[in-house]
Design goal:
The chain has one domain (55-266): MetI-like fold (Orthogonal Bundle). Helices cover 79% and strands 0% of the residues. The protein has helices at residues 7-30, 47-53, 56-88, 93-103, 105-108, 111-125, 131-156, 159-167, 172-183, 185-201, 204-209, 217-227, 231-266. Helix 1 packs across helix 13, helix 2 crosses helix 13 and helix 8 (159-167) runs antiparallel to helix 9 (172-183). The longest helix has 36 residues, at 231-266.
Length: 267
């Protein structure tokens, strides 16, 4: 029997969503303001979007951000999946908990501390701040996220599936590619998209490890906002919000599709 939500709970939920989304829609609304301010809406225009797409430097920064996000998410997903499998292979519970505690350090640590630590590390190692320093930093803080997304799905898997595959003559590679990875694919997809989102969204760590001549969207938006109100920021933020919505839809579609395949596999 389904439980019906109370009117008070629905009202509370609507208030929460309004608080969360009202500033975003306010920002989107004024990205079409011909007046150039966020006080009075004088008329509809696409001038700020045209100006945005004619800004070559900003387009290069967008490309840098996407490349960093995709590369870091891909590499972090590969390393995170292997790490989750390694942690899952430990039979003793306290060993798993100890490794998870080490894994969670980067998640619970303040971003400012992580950024400063990476800055000191790259300076001591002689790594020039720029593309590679940002990429390595994003990979490092994305790996624990992937591990946390993949490990629960891995622990759900019955050991009898692996035993049955080995009894049928499957090699270790076959067990990994044809049994383990298909089963944990929803966690892998979730880990990749979470790592991608964190990379696109990160500011604090990136701010510490970017060098002269290289920037990402979060750092650029911050520097633009400090110069004063510009509706270019609104236009750019609107596009980023729409891209995020598209990513959520794609993620939902992939998880639903993998879930359907998982049901067929279990049969």
């Amino acid at each position: 029997m389904e439980k019906k939500s109370s009117p008070i709970a629905n009202l509370f939920l609507m208030i929460i969503f309004f608080i969360l989304y009202a500033p975003i829609f306010y920002l989107i609304f004024y990205s079409f303001n011909s007046g150039g301010t966020m006080n009075n809406f004088e008329g509809f225009t696409l001038e700020w979007y045209r100006e945005l797409f004619h800004d070559t430097r900003l387009l290069i920064i967008v490309l840098n951000t996407l490349v960093i996000a995709l590369l870091s998410a891909l590499i972090a997903t590969i390393i995170g999946v292997l790490g989750a499998i390694s942690i899952g292979n430990y039979k003793k519970r306290h060993s798993q908990n100890a490794l998870l505690a080490v894994n969670n350090v980067l998640i619970v640590s303040p971003d400012v501390i992580i950024g400063a630590s990476f800055l000191i590390l790259f300076t001591m190692a002689g790594i020039q701040l720029g593309f590679y320093s940002v990429l390595l930093s994003h990979i490092a803080f994305s790996i624990p996220i992937v591990v946390l997304m993949v490990l629960p799905k891995l622990l759900e898997m019955s050991p009898t599936l692996i035993d049955a595959a080995r009894d049928l003559g499957a090699s270790r590679w076959d067990v990994l590619t044809k049994v383990i990875l298909p089963y944990i694919s929803p966690g892998i997809v979730a880990g990749f998209f979470m790592a991608l989102t964190y990379s696109l969204d990160d500011f604090a760590v990136t701010f510490f490890v970017t060098g002269n001549g290289f920037s990402t969207l979060s750092v650029e938006i911050y520097s633009l906002a400090r110069r004063g109100i510009s509706l270019n920021i609104n236009a750019l933020s609107t596009i980023m919000f729409l891209v995020t919505i598209m990513m959520v839809i794609i993620y939902y579609y992939l998880t639903q599709r993998s879930g359907t395949k998982g049901v067929g596999f279990r049969r």
